[in-house]
Write a structure and sequence with these properties.
This protein is an alpha/beta fold. The protein contains 8 helices and 7 strands. Strand 2, helix 2 and strand 3 form a beta-alpha-beta unit. Helix 1 packs across helix 8 and helix 4 runs parallel beside helix 5.
């Protein structure tokens, strides 16, 4: 097991990405702490993990609330001894499907503001605890909109760029304390509800079917397909494990070759 005896905190643990990563972490031996604003979705993921023999706890935590985050992590450390992995996968509140000239400044800026607030708060709180132990892994996730040119994605691409830039700076500051920071960059997994909704919006704008839009996106990759959710989760496991102990300040390219590094 790649993550045996590790404590992993996941923000947005009831969502498609957070839930998939949580299940993968638990499968590899981590004790998983699922947080989010909706307990029902967290409990559904927790039940899957428990049924598979994993160890999981859930808590209602707003990943944009500094006091709630810090109080929760203090409790995790008090009861379990450490925070070894922190992964933030909350939604950013982005609006897609409309051109910039039809958006308000507030709608465009919202995902950027949310991204910087939640990543700063959750990752600073985790880093303080990890620094005391001299080790830890902080993970984030972005998308190909950070480097590709895609119309009608609003502030999503800017938010992704901000997250990756923040991760690089954090890695440079926390490396001497043994803390690694890695960002996963996905091309979008079509087997998630959020990506499916976005594909439908962009397909409608292009005057084609949702299936045609996905096929066109797949043709833009080297593997001629898009990454499945389970593949993104497996890369998260690898990056969080000691097998990636020399990797920090990096972006793990999970785009099926849509982005070529």
């Amino acid at each position: 097991m790649l993550l045996k005896n590790k404590n992993a905190v996941i923000y947005g643990g009831g969502g498609a990405i957070g839930g998939a990563v949580a299940r993968a972490f638990a499968r590899e031996g981590a004790k998983v702490f699922l947080t989010g604003r909706t307990l029902a979705s967290l409990e559904a993921v927790a039940q899957d993990i428990s049924n598979a023999g994993g160890v999981v706890e859930t808590a209602q935590v707003d990943a944009l609330d500094k006091q709630a985050i810090e109080s929760y992590l203090d409790e995790v450390v008090r009861t379990s001894g450490s925070v070894d992995i922190s992964f933030n996968a909350i939604g950013l509140g982005d609006t897609q499907g409309a051109p910039l000239v039809e958006m308000t400044q507030e709608s465009f800026a919202l995902p950027v503001v949310n991204a910087m607030a939640t990543h700063f708060l959750t990752e600073m709180a985790a880093a303080r605890h990890m620094g005391r132990n001299g080790s830890g892994v902080i993970l984030a996730i972005t998308a190909t909109a950070v480097r590709g040119v895609y119309p009608n994605v609003g502030g999503f691409g800017a938010a992704c760029a901000a997250i990756e830039g923040f991760c690089r700076q954090l890695a440079s500051e926390m490396g001497p304390q043994g803390i690694r920071v890695v960002c996963l960059r996905s091309a979008g997994s079509p087997d998630t509800p959020g990506v499916d909704e976005v594909f439908r919006l962009h397909a409608a704008n292009a005057g084609i079917s949702r299936e045609e839009y996905e096929a066109g996106m797949a043709q833009g990759t080297q593997l001629k397909r898009l990454p499945k959710l389970a593949e993104v989760a497996n890369v998260a496991v690898l990056m969080a494990s000691d097998h990636a102990s020399a990797i920090t300040g990096a972006v793990a390219n999970v785009t099926c070759g849509e982005i070529m590094d």
